[in-house]
Amino acid sequence: MPYSPSVLNNALEAVGNTPLIRLDKIAEQEGLQCNLLGKVEYTSAGGSVKDRIAKRMVEEAEKDNKLIPGQSVVIEPTSGNTGIGLAMACAVKGYSVIITMPNKMSLEKEAALRALGAEVVRTPTEAAWDSPDSHIGVALKLQREIPGGIILDQYRNLNNPLAHELTTGPEIIDAVTSTPSTTAKPSSEKVDVLVAGAGTGGTITGISRAIKKTHNRDCIVVGVDPKGSILACPDTLNVEGAGSLYIVEGIGYDFIPDVLSRDTADVDSWIKTDDEESFEAVRKLMRLEGLLVGGSSGSALSGALRWLKSAEGKCIAEKKGANVVVLLADGIRNYMSKPWFLKMALEAEPSPLAKRISDILKESPSQVQTDSETLAEGIKTRTQPNVTNRPDAPDEVTRK
Ligand SMILES: Cc1ncc(COP(=O)(O)O)c(C=O)c1O
After folding, report:
1. Domain boundaries along the sequence of the chain
2. Which listed residue, of 131, 145, 213, 277, carries a Cα 20 to 30 Å from 339's Cα?
3. Is the domain 11-48+161-335 a CATH 3.40.50.1100 member?
4. 259-282 pLDDT tens trace
5. Rounded distance from Cα 197 to ligand 1 centre (Å)
6. Confidence check: pLDDT of 81 > 60
């Protein structure tokens, strides 16, 4: 919740109410006539789109008397963001929480979870979903053994898609319909296309229902699924790269969660994405739009741009005023130590400005000594993106 005119009672009241932001520079670079709009979820209190379902699943379980403060232990298998939302809710409400999470998920997510008071159990990334070693299998085992253990189960809990049908979707609709069309910024005043990645599928299913039921029946909803996952429909789309591992976190699975609707009435079509294009799109969102988004946001943007270039998407891309909304699920805070991000941020080609800075400092008679070559080469020569951190990296400017 970016702004509230009154005092909030707790962190959970700062979940959601995220901004919808024009991505004009990307649209221009891509030659799009339509409006490209990003729903920026990292401004939510816990930093992702999943705060919304965590809050709702906890509050609805309380209404059903399934949670008892001081007794209940909330256990959840997650790729991390649902865990962070749950740990935040449980910190506010006084429940213990255990998060089971595959090894591939970032250290930052684990640190945030532990900081919020959660216990974290890591599981092998390659374990199949129905293996006792998977994050789901381990959560089930813990639930059986721990008194008061309860799995709210984002994969089956109807409050997952419902949270998005009742909050994320209406927020998008409100933002689009309350922004009038102008000559400079034409708008159909409708959500014409929605593009979102799918993990549990709750986000895309819930937003789609909100839009199609209450706002625009003809809205085209495009799901984004990483190569190696099996969520896309029809199944033939999932053949290329079947079973391969991918780095992007939070989207894709090796089973179809109950809350994902693969019905074409809800999700019209699917695009498969790979890591490389996702990270390239993250870079665009950062450099061109100033948005510090995470990896799956790059997948969603890349999927949107590819769909807009497809035979089906072209007519929307060329339509002035058509509104294409891309769901940007979380922020880079979750991935700061990941090699893909360090490589992107620190291995960039030295800019002409870096050379100029180097020349100025070299010529100046101050005590500051620089090596112009090193500075122009920048951090590139001094970082090792294949290690998890860079504790020994020297400063760029050496002071003597
Ligand atoms: C970073 C990120 N992006 C996208 C998603 C997909 O959301 P959903 O599970 O609602 O499909 C998730 C889910 O965990 C996520 O963590």
Report:
1. 11-48+161-335, 51-151, 347-399
2. 131
3. yes
4. 999 999 999 999 999 999 999 999
5. 7
6. yes
Q: How far is the CA of 297 from the centre of ligand 1 (A)?
A: 10
Residue 104 CA, ligand 1 centroid: distance in Å? 15
Buried b (16+ CB within 10 A) or exposed e, 334-369: bbeebebbbbbebeeebeeebbebbeebeeeeeeee
Cβ-proximal residues to 187 (8 Å cutoff; 6+ apart), any chain? 35, 176, 179, 180, 181, 321, 323
Atom 15 of ligand 1, residue of closest alpha carbon: 250
Strand 73-77 with 119-123, pairing: unpaired
Q: Which class does domain 51-151 fall in?
A: alpha beta
Closest approach atom of ligand 1 to CA 164:
10
Q: Of all protein residues, whose CA lies closest to atom 1 belonging to ligand 1?
A: 250
**Ligand 1: which of 49, 110, 155, 204 to mutate, judged by most atoms within 8 Å of the beta carbon?**
49
